[in-house]
Design brief:
about 325 residues; 2 domains; 13 helices; Tyrosyl-Transfer RNA Synthetase; tryptophan-tRNA ligase activity; aa-tRNA-synth_Ic; Trp-tRNA-ligase_bac-type; 3-stranded parallel β-sheet; protein biosynthesis; Rossmann fold; mainly alpha; nucleotide-binding; 7 strands; binds adenosine-5'-tetraphosphate; about 10% strand
């Protein structure tokens, strides 16, 4: 299984519940590669210092959240050169009109106007390289990545039919769809996704937010004037989202959390939610700060990870280049 996080800002509880926490569970079940996708991050403008810091911070959070480097491979995408190399080769088999259909491109391009880069357009092909390079069977995806994964499968199929003759060169990975936590919504708007790159820090809880910041954000988050804390995705999106977050951080189903909170006032609910968040995030934050004190240790884990990932990637690259007619170095 492969999965990644973009260092486009500090990781939030959506990234934790939708990705990192699931990854920890998956590491007992699958052979995993988890990486910080810094090459993807630059498809929208990034400040270089901010990118470097966010990259190391994300890698440290992988470990702090429980990814064990003796069970899973952790690395930085740009440290394995084959991602870019395979991306170029796949670019040459991917029809432009497939990429033109990508909803995420259309949405991000609309926001960026004339400055939209070729890289943003090509984002899904780089994602295809990330996955196909390691011959992954499974890719955990939230709702918004499902279209991209379908494209990855189409690219793989097309590559195999053009170059594979009777052999399958690249695998067709399957999506691993998450449950209720696959889409954690923003604190200021229960209908839009919690996001790292939103300019409003009050719209999200970052994994590294100290307790007083978490308290302030929950205190000021958008609510409604109705009685009772119940799930009603259409009528009460903010309430449903907060209940969903509470359920996830107290390891309950949504139904169980609703039974516990149904009679609470907003004030009572915000207190228990703040407690659940601060208590769950405290050990992660402690581990994170320890790791950031020993950068050599972190960098060594990342180096081991990229060495191992490169060795797998090389096998795929050789097969891909051979069947496309590239001459190997003598
Ligand atoms: N709000 C979310 N709820 C649940 N899961 C989420 N993920 C992201 N946001 C939520 C999951 O986190 C993983 C890494 O995501 P990404 O780095 O590719 O970023 P993204 O999905 O584009 O959203 P972000 O983190 O908010 O970043 P920006 O602002 O840069 O778009 C993925 O598994 C994703 O599903």
């Amino acid at each position: 299984m492969v999965s990644g996080v973009q260092p486009t800002g500090y990781l939030h509880i959506g990234n934790y519940l939708g990705a990192l926490r699931q990854w920890v569970l998956h590491q007992e079940q699958y052979e995993n590669l988890f990486f910080v996708v810094d090459l993807h991050a630059i498809t929208v403008p990034q400040d270089p210092k901010g990118l470097a810091e966010a990259t190391l911070s994300a890698a440290a959070l992988f470990l702090a959240c429980g990814i064990d480097p003796s069970k899973s491979t952790i690395f930085i995408q740009s440290h394995v050169k084959a991602h870019v190399e395979l991306c170029w080769l796949l670019n040459c088999v991917t029809p432009v009109n497939w990429l033109e259909k990508m909803i995420q491109f259309k949405e991000k391009a609309r926001k960026q106007g004339e400055n939209v880069s070729v890289g943003l357009f090509d984002y899904p092909v780089l994602m295809a390289s990330d996955v196909l390079l390691y011959q992954a069977d499974l890719v955990p995806v939230g709702e918004d990545q499902q279209q991209h994964l379908e494209l990855v499968r189409s690219i793989s199929k097309r590559f195999n039919s053009l170059y594979g003759k009777k052999k399958r060169i690249l695998k067709e990975p399957k999506p691993l769809i998450q449950g209720n936590t696959s889409r954690i919504m923003a604190l200021d708007d229960g209908t839009s996704k919690m996001s790292k790159s939103s300019t409003n820090d009050m719209s999200r809880i970052n994994i590294l937010d100290p307790p007083n910041t978490i308290q302030r954000k929950i205190q000021r988050c958008k609510t409604d004037s109705l009685m009772g804390i119940v799930s009603d995705p259409v009528g009460r999106p903010e309430c449903t989202n907060l209940l969903n977050i509470y359920a996830a951080f107290t390891n309950q189903s949504l139904t169980q959390a609703e039974a516990e909170c149904r009679e609470m006032s907003w004030g009572q609910f915000k207190r228990v939610l703040t407690d659940a968040l601060t208590t769950s995030l405290e050990p992660i934050q402690r581990k994170y700060h320890e790791l950031r004190k020993d950068e050599d240790f972190l960098r060594q884990i990342l180096k081991n990870g990229s060495d191992y990932a490169s060795s797998i990637a090389q096998v795929t690259m050789q097969q891909v280049k051979d069947c496309m007619g590239f001459i190997p170095i003598h």
